[in-house]
Amino acid sequence: MIFALLTAGCRTPGPSPDELREVTQEMVAAAQAITSRKSEITVRPVMGQAADGSGPVREGDHILIVLDQANELHALQKALDAVARNHGLTRFGGSASNDAFEFDYGIDARHTHSIQIAVPTNATPPKQVTAPHTAAATSLLAVIIDDLGYDGAAADAVLALRFPLTVAVLPNHPLSTEIAEKAHQRGHQVILHLPMESESGHHESGAKPEIVELRPGMKGSEVDAIVAKMLETVPYASGVNNHQGSRATANAPLMDALMHALAARHLFFIDSRTTAATVAYDAAERDGVHAAWRKVFLDDVATRPAVLKQLALAVRDARKQGWAIAIGHPHPATIATLAENLPRLETQGIRLVFASDVTH
User: What is the tens place of the pLDDT at every residue in 184-207?
Assistant: First the structure.
């Protein structure tokens, strides 16, 4: 059993992130089997600090399961308990309300998995998902802010905005984990801003590329390991979008490998569309990864008039097709324009949502 070392006479550091993920994948598979894949499942890493102070480490996983039918609860709990027993884990505590159950699994004093099960009630009908290609009565607009992770002041300005945002955090930066945690605490959606190789081999804006990025030619195991390591520094990530990547997203084998890695973790994908030759969305569709794509860049020209013009284009697309994704960056002009104009949109038939709400 993968947690055998924890039961030894001396204290050990515990299971690796890969071993934790193995248990998580079995729990997710058990939940899917019970619910015939009709449940909504979200997996987020739980981060902590290494005992030696070397940096953030993955201590466990939080698993949210939204049931389609309340009568599935008992069978689901039994299935999760069985997976836990197979790996030497014990259930800890628990709390319940009319529509939710929460409990943990772990060994000794170490809690490795936090489980939250949402149960539909007569007063709360099952959530309806609006696919990107289906126009809804209310037009949906998701705003993603890219490139957070290294500038604390810029991140604070973004996170102070009081409407739903999807925050794309770069991995492996000094403030990546802190910003992701703050965003989650303030109710924003967190996604991994995954670095990928551009066509020129350089950052599309002329800056240096990230030290670690996905590149064509990488093996599937290498892609999976890179994604896993990056997710450790961006806790609460429920999805991924590409940082740069005009060359990478046009490479079918690389995108297939990426989507395999995302599917295993039940993460969605947003194609930033840094090239017209992208095949990322097609790869996501083949692997059953929930996905969507960027409609508008807000701040290629980072002035308030230019951002306002691009926001109007995103609103137009949302009204025309029922949904739109707009991507911006933590520029002062972008933040100021969004703060002033986004709250007004909800009175004009535009509903602000997270990126996951417009994926299918």
Answer: 988 899 999 999 999 875 444 445
SS3 content of the chain, % helix, strand, coil (to 5): 35, 25, 35
Average pLDDT in the 115-125 region? 63
Residue for token pair 């390591």 = 229
C-alpha distances (whole Å) from 155 to each of 180, 218, 251 are 10, 32, 32
Rg of the chain taking only CA atoms, in angstroms = 21
pTM: 0.64
Question: Which SS3 state, helix, strand or coil, does residue 41 take?
Answer: strand
Task: Give the class (CATH, top level) of 4-118.
Answer: alpha beta
| DSSP codes of every residue in 38-71 | -SEEEEEEEEEE-TTSS-EEEEEEEEEEE-S-GG
Distances (CA, A) of 9 to 77, 120, 201: 31, 44, 51
For residue 352, give both structure tokens. Answer: 């602000």
Three-class DSSP category at 156: helix
Q: Which helix (H) or strand (E) holds 259?
A: helix 252-265
Question: How far, in Å, CA of 63 to CA of 45, rounded?
Answer: 9
CA dist 36 and 204 (Å) reads 43
Label the pairing between strands 40-49 and 56-66: antiparallel
Assess contact for 17 and 113: CB atoms under 8 A. no
| In the chain, where the domains are located | 4-118, 139-358
**Measured distance CA(242)–CA(163) in Å, rounded:** 23
The CATH number of 139-358 is: 3.20.20.370
- Judged by DSSP in three states, 355 sits in helix
Residue-wise pLDDT for 59-106, tens only, equals 788 888 888 777 888 888 888 988 988 888 888 777 666 567 888 888
Q: What is the DSSP string of 186-238?
A: TT-EEEEEEEE--TTSS-TTSSPPPSS-B-TT--HHHHHHHHHHHHHHSTTEE
